[in-house]
């Protein structure tokens, strides 16, 4: 999931979290169940952030941005805390999260 700099969550506090939920915690080799702005995520030179939501490690150099997910179906949830009330805002639909895309 690529989060372009201009599409990072529009919040008043640094508290946006992405959660992966499945019926079991067996799939998680690093005991991480969410990614949030509080984490030390690696950013790209242009300020965007790549999030890796997948079963296998994307490589040691990318694990800071890795949210382990099961190989089968799972539910991805984004929680937005203290969203901005002025555009761009999730409250009025002027901000939406970027799509999750499957990388081949």
Looking at this protein, list some descriptive labels:
104 residues, Jelly Rolls, mainly beta, two-stranded antiparallel sheet, single chain, globular
Report on this structure.
By secondary structure, this protein is an all-beta fold. It has a single domain, classed as Domain of unknown function DUF1214, C-terminal domain (Jelly Rolls), CATH 2.60.120. 0% of the residues lie in helices and 24% in strands. The protein has no helices and seven strands. It has strands at 2-3, 16-21, 34-36, 49-50, 52-54, 66-68, 75-80. The strands form three sheets. Strands 3-2-7 form a three-stranded antiparallel sheet, with no helix packed on it. Strands 1-4 form a two-stranded antiparallel sheet. It has a two-stranded parallel sheet with strand order 5-6. It is globular, with a radius of gyration of 14 Å. The model has no long low-confidence stretch (mean pLDDT 82).
């Amino acid at each position: 999931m690529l989060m372009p700099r201009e599409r990072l969550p529009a919040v008043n506090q640094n508290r946006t979290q992405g959660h992966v939920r499945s019926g079991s915690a067996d799939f998680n080799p690093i005991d991480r169940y969410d990614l949030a702005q509080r984490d030390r995520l690696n950013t790209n030179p242009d300020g965007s952030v790549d999030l890796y939501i997948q079963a296998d490690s994307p490589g040691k150099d990318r694990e800071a941005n890795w949210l382990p997910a099961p190989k089968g179906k799972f539910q991805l949830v984004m929680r937005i805390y203290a969203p901005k009330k002025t555009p761009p805002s999730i409250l009025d639909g002027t901000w939406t999260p970027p799509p999750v895309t499957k990388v081949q």
